[in-house]
């Protein structure tokens, strides 16, 4: 594996998201959704948990981050709104590592061209959060919260659409120490009035969240907290009014599979099993679309079949963790005895120069609409003067199996060429 392990897992996660969009078009998909879910859970086990914090300005997002890490890792916005982070931030303390997106308050004024929601979406596009943490001040659970919750619901739905995955939602009632009676700052307390006000705030936030269909579906719990502290907390004269932070941390870790095993690398057998499973699931998608495209459009010189076949090989190379190039695909096909493989590789290298998002969008649109384009004929497996659905599908399967054998199982190319006899299919 020539890329770093974390880069590899991040790249694999993006490929799974892309494939989830495609398999929506496939009937009788079998176990692929289940397999991709298992892979998602595996990937969560080998990277830090990701949390996105959402709420109004002043809800205490930065203070909560500091409380979780037991030190001042984030400046608090006491007077002016904080500038939103442009990237995910990794925080580490006492062996604990988290990736957190501390977002702009949803009610803050829009910048020149972007609303707070669009800024958050832009930040969440590269990485999918595992859990959304919605923060609301204890004194504001019934004050102007509807607008913020409506925006939050729309935002989390859009993140789901981007990443093809439901987030989990945890509501956090902040600044509970400021509820009446105000002279009791230290929690927990035996004061009945204080405890009743805290419970009322929790119930009010839970009710407001539950009134929204999507948020109600993904809501895990609502937890009251107090996060005020002066750091370092063990310094003489510094106040530490934190409360329920450990309960919140435990809940977060309970909801992220094996989060305590952050950055534990899988052993070789686990990684090998994962790679083969992902590769075969992706290959199934490619073979299905190859057969469908060829069956719907039995025309010579079609672009779509070789494009799908080339991308099937590319997926395997990516899953294997090798550095990808179209030259590598060309050499692989040439070593298997595929005619015109070098020319085909040059052609697809040209296609690869297109912006990747444009290419993915174009391919997805094609697969949905089956619009036929043409390409000078290359005698790739599955192509002859006329493409047959069965022949194209079988050839794509063979190509994918050969790629798995070579790039993942690491069999010598000479042995692969003997095992997978690939001949052009003619009419």
Describe the fold and architecture.
It is a single chain. With 427 residues, this protein is an alpha/beta fold. The protein has 2 domains: 48-261, Rossmann fold, CATH 3.40.50; 268-419. It is 50% helix and 9% strand. It contains 15 helices and 6 strands. Strands 2-3-1-4-5-6 form a 6-stranded mixed sheet, sandwiched between helices. Strand 4, helix 5 (145-163) and strand 5 (168-174) form a beta-alpha-beta unit. It starts with a helix and ends in an 8-residue tail after the last helix. Mean pLDDT is 75; it is low at 77-85, 259-266, 341-387 and 423-427.
SSE blueprint:
Elements: H1 5-23, H2 32-45, E1 50-55, H3 61-69, E2 89-93, E3 96-102, H4 116-124, E4 131-137, H5 145-163, E5 168-174, H6 192-210, H7 213-218, E6 219-224, H8 245-255, H9 268-296, H10 304-320, H11 326-335, H12 341-352, H13 356-369, H14 389-408, H15 413-419
Parallel strand pairs: 1-3, 1-4, 4-5, 5-6
Antiparallel strand pairs: 2-3
Helix pairs in contact: 1-2, 2-9, 4-5, 9-10, 9-14, 10-14, 11-12
Keywords:
427 residues, alpha/beta, Rossmann fold, 2 domains, six-stranded mixed beta sheet, elongated
Task: Give the domain tally.
Answer: 2
Average pLDDT figure: 75
CATH class of the largest domain: Alpha Beta
Classify the helix fraction into a percent range: 40-55%
CATH architecture of the largest domain: 3-Layer(aba) Sandwich
Provide a short characterization of the protein structure.
With 427 residues, the chain is α/β, with parallel strands linked by helices. It has helices at 5-23, 32-45, 61-69, 116-124, 145-163, 192-210, 213-218, 245-255, 268-296, 304-320, 326-335, 341-352, 356-369, 389-408, 413-419, and strands spanning 50-55, 89-93, 96-102, 131-137, 168-174, 219-224.
């Amino acid at each position: 594996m020539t890329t770093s392990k974390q880069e590899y897992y991040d790249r694999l996660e993006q490929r799974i998201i892309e494939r989830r969009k495609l398999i929506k078009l496939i009937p009788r998909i079998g176990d692929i959704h289940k397999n991709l879910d298992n892979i998602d859970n595996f990937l969560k086990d080998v990277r830090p948990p990701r949390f996105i914090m959402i709420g109004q300005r002043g809800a205490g997002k930065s203070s909560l981050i500091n409380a979780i890490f037991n030190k001042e890792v984030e400046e608090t916005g006491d007077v002016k709104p904080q500038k939103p982070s442009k990237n995910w931030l990794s925080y580490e303390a006492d062996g604990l590592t988290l990736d957190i997106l501390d977002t702009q308050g949803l009610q803050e004024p829009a910048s020149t061209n972007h609303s707070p929601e669009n800024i958050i979406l832009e930040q969440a596009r590269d990485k999918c959060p595992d859990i959304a943490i919605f923060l609301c001040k204890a004194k504001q659970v019934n004050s102007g919260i509807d607008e913020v919750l409506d925006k939050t619901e729309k935002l989390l739905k859009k993140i789901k659409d981007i990443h093809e995955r439901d987030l989990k939602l945890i509501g956090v009632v902040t600044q509970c120490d400021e509820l009446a009676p105000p002279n009791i700052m230290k929690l927990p307390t035996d004061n009945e009035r204080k405890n009743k006000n805290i419970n009322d705030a929790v119930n009010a936030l839970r009710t407001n969240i539950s009134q929204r269909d999507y948020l109600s579906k993904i809501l895990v719990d609502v937890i009251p907290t107090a996060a005020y502290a002066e750091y370092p907390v063990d310094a003489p004269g510094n106040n530490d009014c934190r409360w329920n932070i450990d309960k919140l941390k435990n809940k977060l870790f309970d909801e992220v599979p094996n989060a305590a095993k952050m950055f534990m690398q899988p052993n070789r057998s686990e990684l090998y099993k994962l790679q083969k499973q992902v590769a075969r699931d992706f290959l199934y998608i490619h073979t299905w679309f190859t057969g469908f495209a060829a069956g719907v459009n039995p025309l010579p010189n079609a672009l779509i079949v070789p494009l799908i076949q080339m991308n099937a090989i590319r997926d395997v190379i990516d899953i294997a963790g090798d550095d990808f190039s179209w030259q590598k695909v060309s050499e692989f096909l040439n070593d298997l005895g595929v005619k015109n493989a070098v020319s085909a590789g040059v052609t697809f290298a040209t296609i690869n120069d297109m912006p990747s998002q444009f290419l993915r969008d174009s391919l997805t649109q094609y697969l949905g609409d089956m619009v036929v384009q043409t390409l000078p004929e290359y005698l790739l497996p599955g192509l002859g003067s006329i493409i047959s659905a069965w022949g194209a599908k079988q050839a794509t399967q063979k190509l994918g199996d050969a790629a798995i054998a070579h790039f993942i199982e690491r069999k010598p190319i000479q042995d692969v060429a003997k095992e997978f006899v690939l001949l052009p299919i003619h009419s």
